[in-house]
Amino acid sequence: MSIGWKWTALACLSALSLGAQSRTILAVGAHAADVENMAGALLAHQHMLGDRIVILHMTLGEAGNPKLAPAEYAKQKRTEALAAAKDLGAEAIFAPYADAMLPNDEAVRLYVADVIRQVKPAYVVTHWKNSMHKDHRNTHDVVVDAVLMASLEAIKTPHPPYSGVRQILYAENWEDSSEFQPYIYVDVSDAFDVWRKALREYQLMRGGISPFPYFDYYSALARIRGALAGYRYAEAFDIDESSKKITMKSLE
Question: DSSP class of residue 159?
């Protein structure tokens, strides 16, 4: 899927949609709140530009609350995820998998491949390959393979093949930081307040569940990436090494 985008290692995009035509962006996170943390501002920004936004939550992250049973927290996380999706202008899909138990097998790949065939995204956003969290690593592996599988006639799912994914973008997550190298910086200044509202739909972001200051960390990170990119706020993404090339007929 390598294409000759004219981006440098510190390239800055004011938008992914380089043109008036709207498209679909599919963001796949291991747990409800992952996508919103690491790419929610991008999604809100692209929605403002007229793009269709779809979030696929592979699990609800229901095992992460020490004060609630997983079944009870799952109900809360689903409600929070729907509220956050509404804020971002996104549709939400909930995969049938359990937190900390996400398989890395062909059945999951077929499930995600069929979501891709059904949604027909131009861009897919997901986790970076290296993570301290098994569900994050598995989500990365599954999504990368599913994009290819979705394009193959030989792979049978309820929906027909789809080969229109232009690029997989790997989002920045504090749990996935090993060897992550920001390559694409997207100006999300216009969506920053909307994004912060969406984050606060989650109790996890507001505090009281985890000692990690998610809301403060990702808010500060957006400012740092914005400073590096020359914007007020930005989100940064990596891509596959095979896609990191610039083609031109002469220096411009």
Answer: S
